[in-house]
Structures are given as C-alpha cells and as structure tokens.
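Weekly modeling sync, notes
Attendees: S.R. (lead), two postdocs, one rotation student

Agenda item 3: backlog of single-chain predictions. S.R. asked that every request posted to the team notebook include the full sequence so nobody has to chase files. The rotation student volunteered to paste the first one in as an example of the format we agreed on. Action items at the bottom.

Example entry:
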Amino acid sequence: MVADRQPPNPKDLGAQPGDPDREALLAFRAGDAGAFDVLVEKHQDRVYRLALRLLSDADAALDAAQETFVKAWRALPRFQGASLFTTWLTRIAINQCRNELRRRRTVKHQRPLSLDVPVGESESLRRDTLPAPGANAWEVARGKEVATACREALGELEPDAREVLLLREVEDLSYEDMAAILDVAVGTVRSRLHRARAELRRRVAPVLDA
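Predicted structure, as returned to the notebook:
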C-alpha cells in the first residue's frame, strides 16, 4: 500500500531546494518585500549586460532591464519554482528584449557595441580575445581588433543566433536551461548554437586571417 503523500508546504512553493536564491524567494513569499531588493541587487548587472548585448543600445538595455524586474515583481507571487529563479528571470529578460526588437521592426541598422562597454571577466567572448600578460603593442592592437570584430559580428547576427550564443558563451548556461528560457527543445538549442557559431566564425574570419 502506497503511503499517503503529504501536501506540499506552501512556504516551499516558488523555490527549488538547490536554488541559490531560495532564501530570498521564501522571504518574499513570507511577506518580506525587501527580499526582492536583494534579488535585484544580485542580478541587475547580469540582466543589464545581457540586454545590452541583445539590443546594442545602452539606454534601451537599461529600460529593458528595469522592465524585466518590474515584470518579475508582478509575477513572482505566481512563480512555482519549476526552474531556478535565474532561469526564470533570464527568460523574462529575453522576452523583454524580443519585444523591443519587434518594436524596432528591424535590427540590421543597430550600431555595434562600444569598446567602452564593460565586459565581465568570466565572459568567454572577451576572454578569448584578450592578449596574454606581457604582450607587445602589436598583440594588444591585434586583440582589440579581433574583439571589435567579434562584437560587431555578434550585433549583426539574427536575434535567435545572438540569443543562443550569449546564453551559452557568456551566461554559460546548460542546454537544458537554454531550452527552458527559449521555450524550445534541447535539440533545437544545439542546432541553433551550431549554426550561430558557424555564422560568427564566417563573419570574423577576414580579421582572423588578415
């Protein structure tokens, strides 16, 4: 005879046991409105950087990041913890950026990211193009040239391709998390990523081969 299942504790809804944000999520659910400020403080830079790379415009990225947290605040009472909070939040950010790109109707005239845009040390697109310590002036210039080419090429990709590259190469997400965020099958994520990498290499090849 199967033992009767105990009903879930309402306090445990909305946060996976292994979610790094579990404490803040449970505090928010318990009525601590200030717990959301903790989540914003923790994730705002990452959300802004992702929006910046998707939209290639600092003001639009700031607006998208702010709207992401507004929507997250409104929806958080209904968040049931089917995924990590970061996965759920990233999906909101991606959708917000998609809305902005649809509003513009075209992305082909977007300007590339400025060289002054800060990039996190853990982000592989930059890490792969940084010169080694002690590099001479030519190597430094060469590294900047390749980095600029990568940023420009990334900005010229179709939105779907840019999304999968950023989620994998910059956010370092698993295929499963990417599939959840993009609302597609894992196989679709893999094929999109393969095509996106090939297209990025094709666009950057002239600089690499120079």
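Discussion: group reviewed the output briefly. Residues 186-208 form the longest helix (23 residues).
Action items: rotation student to repeat for the remaining queue; S.R. to check formatting next week.
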